[in-house]
Amino acid sequence: MSNQNDEWLQEQQRVDETVAKVKQKEKFLISQVKSVKDEAEEIRQNFWEDVTVNLDEPDDVIETFTSIRQQAELLSERERSYGHVEESIETLKKLEQSPYFARVDFKENDETEEKIYIGIASFIDENDEYLVYDWRAPISSIYYDGSPGPVSYETPEGSRSGEMLLKRQFLIKNGRIESLFDTGVTIGDEMLQEVLGNKADTHMKSIVATIQKEQNKIIRDISSRLLFVQGAAGSGKTSAALQRIAYLLYRFRDSLHSEQMILFSPNRLFNHYISKVLPELGESNIVQTTFFDYAQSRFPDLELESLFEQFENSVNEIENTWRSKAIQLKGDRSFFQAINKYVLDLNESGLFFKDIRFRGKVLISKEEISELFYSYDSSFSLPNRFPLVTKELLKRLEEKALEEEQEDWVEEEMELLDREDYLKAFQHSLKGERKGKVVFDSFDQEKEYLAKQIVRKYFRKIKVAVKRYRFFHIKAQFVDFLKKASEFIHLDEFELSDREWLEIQNHTIHALNHKKIHMEDVVPYLYLSDLIEGRKSQTSIKYVFIDEIQDYSPLQLEYMKYMFPYSKFTMLGDINQSIFNKGKKPTIQTAIDIFGAEKAEIIRLTKSYRSTAAITAFTKEILQDGEEIELFEREGKKPTIIVRNDVDQLIEEITDQVNKLTKISGSVAIIGKTMKDCEQAFQLLKNKINVTLIGMKNQEIVDGPMLLPSYLAKGLEFDSVIVLNASNEMYHQDSERTLLYTICTRAMHQLIITSVGKPSRLFDAVDSELYSLD
Ligand SMILES: Nc1ncnc2c1ncn2[C@@H]1O[C@H](COP(=O)(O)OP(=O)(O)OP(=O)(O)O)[C@@H](O)[C@H]1O
Hints:
- ATP binds at residues 231-238.
- One of its GO terms (molecular function) is ATP binding.
- Pfam families: UvrD-helicase, UvrD_C_2.
- By secondary structure, this protein is α/β, with parallel strands linked by helices.
- The strands form five sheets. Strands 1, 2, 3, 4, 5, 6 and 7 form a seven-stranded mixed β-sheet that branches.
- Strand 1 (102-107) and strand 2 (114-119) form a beta hairpin.
- The protein starts with a helix and ends with a strand.
- Bound molecules: adenosine-5'-triphosphate (ATP).
- Adenosine-5'-triphosphate is lined by residues 192, 195-196, 205, 207, 210-212, 215, 231, 233-239, 574, 609-610, 715, 717, 745.
């Protein structure tokens, strides 16, 4: 038997031993879980028997309350430990299948050599010996960063160094070693080839076994206030970010919880796509949202235009019309500063208020509110004056309510009261009697009581509105700001004339009057309202992750910093994939300007792992002055450009291709430019193939072929991509280069570009050797 086989056998033996111990532990925990579960069940069943309920005297009430609380705490403690044991069992089940994926032999100075096995979680045997180290443990970083020879790694106590004698990778499935490699500098290409050659999944997978050195830097960074990752399409930005979340939760497990992290992703489809990575690593998902969803939650009364609608609307307009200039201006940092300056001027006067009305009558006029607001000392900030004004308004409303009780309408309404209302009044009277209070002894008193109830019912709504500061007229304030904004900004820097600016204002006002708000107005509007009314920034959030950062405007970045003042930011983006935001400066520079260079770390990922070398070579040439992109050598067919004369022929071709591709590859996506294009194609395709149209309303990845617009495909990947009609007519502007690049880079194994008539001129720059033409 050769040495190599001996090694393999020895390793398999170790796997067997580890798995046996894992199973043993699992068995023990299963028995434990049963007893914890039974105990919790018993507490729940006997809950009321074990507490003493006595509500006679105030002291008894306190005692009862304490007793209930103790019992509830006991129950939740048992339930928590039940949850923990369940989680541990889940992890053990994973270890049972594949206990580890790597081994490094490490010798620290004069100490004896140690064999470190690395897996998705630590496993310690009965003698407290580490049979498996968590991939996030300090020592595990030498596997990702180092190669055989001298190595060092960071621990919370400082740096440690020694020598790495061996670096080995395993692929273990169902407790059997399927492959084993000893590797050098990088984490073996063999392993990566194997992983990347697999089919796409409806959910993203974790990359824990093959994290690359540069990605490991992203994952383990703990000092930067701003970690900015500029990475080519498919270079693992999202993957690294998710591993980073898992790492941070492990590294700071005593002080950091998943609720203290938030991830802004491009769309809900993407949220769904990445939702299994953290649970796969044994961690809970963090809050995932999209900026649109966040903003919508702040605008209950307005219909928000989404970034996608903005895209759909603006692609139809000629470039550089006033709309795209408006988007530029309203996304600029100078616009943010303009809001700051405008608000400074409101300290003494200038806030807009609304009358507080009831039944068509003004209860408290806007002038009265304004007078009240500005009666407070101007050293009080605007937000600090709001609670004071609210308190006073509520007091005045009480007086108004008393007056209102005398009005005729109250009496009329009283006559319309049904039996139930009277019964309620009667019960109230009985309650009062029990408490030794004066109760109705005359018809007048009963009437008085009912009148109070009626008015109170109506006034309740008004009071709620006052408590929510609805007396402040944010819409009018925003319009006023727009009217005065040109005092604070230089319109000519945005090539805007006064007339165009006026047109932009009218456009915004028109939308607001129809209870709508354009995407470019959303953040300025939110910020203005926050500065005036005072919004509590989210101080409990410690880490903010923003994916597809290139689509955020500079003003949005400013707002993010304002909203999460104590957070560390991880921003992931690719300037080559900017679809929406065409700011004056690259986002990376803007982010550094905003957050300051001292605490910023920039990491560039240049190697693209998603696509075959043939696809990356092709997509790279669509960009002319793109960021650096390196190929990952993985074999595959050259992309094909298929040109047909008319739409019918194109649809025939797409039908054939989808039928062929679904037989050989896993997921197939047909990607169109806009939703409208996709809807038209869907009408023509739906009776020929079983395809699902993905839109804003059904953002979920499904099995089988999908048809979706470019912006919803962001961040996703598919085994095969068919680009829907990439004709010259469809994509002809230079600004659409990045859009076309984004669509094409979704393909992992095969890329087919279709076109009615001449394909987009944006492909002209691509070497004809890099694709085949049909
Ligand atoms: N170290 C790695 N090991 C294995 N697979 C990897 C690694 N890095 C990236 N990948 C794979 O490459 C693909 C692309 O990764 P990911 O989606 O994270 O890239 P991205 O940079 O966010 O892409 P894009 O900007 O195009 O959306 C995924 O299938 C991911 O699993």
